[in-house]
Automatic annotation (TrEMBL):
Any Pfam family matching the protein: Nuc_deoxyrib_tr
Name of the molecule in the record: Nucleoside 2-deoxyribosyltransferase
Highest taxon in the source lineage: Bacteria
InterPro entries hit by this protein: 2'-dNMP_N-hydrolase, Nucleoside_deoxyribTrfase
Length: 189
């Protein structure tokens, strides 16, 4: 089974090494990992802007994969990387298994409140509001309800771990939990 390894790991200073480490873990569980930065033979298209070539490569990778494991650790804000969330939704729409993990176990609301520039307040119904008066999601979830809902609807798994900040981008224990669950589901048939 080929597994697309979605996440902002491609932006890490050691992205290549991280991709290789994840692929080794996949192999240990009888899976083939496909990292977004892996080359595709057909990706050379003259005159195509680089950003679009990257998009096309990643879409081709996803279409060639049987499942997705997404790194949903908050990236540049309180939520997961938007590109990763798109990829998770794309694979969900294809009907493929999707799993995710986050190395920040705090609730989405807690993380968001920590970034609100003006003091947060509650409305008459007791709902949290940000500095612009907009309601905040407060469901006790790791991220936006559509992310966790998509994983749940696909009978997937979302692993939440509380990893020290210095190790958030290098700790692969939650990633491996997802691989174990995916491999176990394959054995069950």
């Amino acid at each position: 089974m080929k597994v697309y390894l979605a996440g902002p790991d491609v932006f890490l200073p050691n992205a290549t090494e991280m991709g290789e480490a994840k692929k080794r873990l996949c192999a240990r569980h009888g899976l083939e990992g496909v990292f977004p930065a892996d080359p595709r033979p057909e990706e050379v298209e003259p005159g195509v802007p680089l950003w679009y070539a990257i998009y096309r490569r990643n879409e081709a990778h996803m279409r060639a994969c049987d499942a997705l494991v997404a790194n949903l650790t908050p990236f540049r804000g309180p939520s997961a990387d938007p590109g990763t969330v798109y990829e998770l939704g794309f694979m969900r729409a294809l009907g493929r298994p999707v799993l995710g993990y986050t190395n920040d176990a705090a609730d989405f609301t807690t993380r968001t409140l920590g970034l609100v520039p003006a003091p947060a307040a509650r409305n008459a119904a007791g709902r949290w509001l940000d500095g612009q008066g907009m309601a905040l999601e407060n469901h006790g979830l790791a991220d936006n309800l559509m992310i966790e809902g998509g994983i749940r609807a696909a009978n997937g798994l979302l692993v939440r771990r509380d990893v020290p900040e210095a190790e958030r981008w290098s700790d692969l224990a939650a990633f491996e939990d997802c691989l174990q669950a995916l491999a176990a589901s394959l054995r069950r048939g």
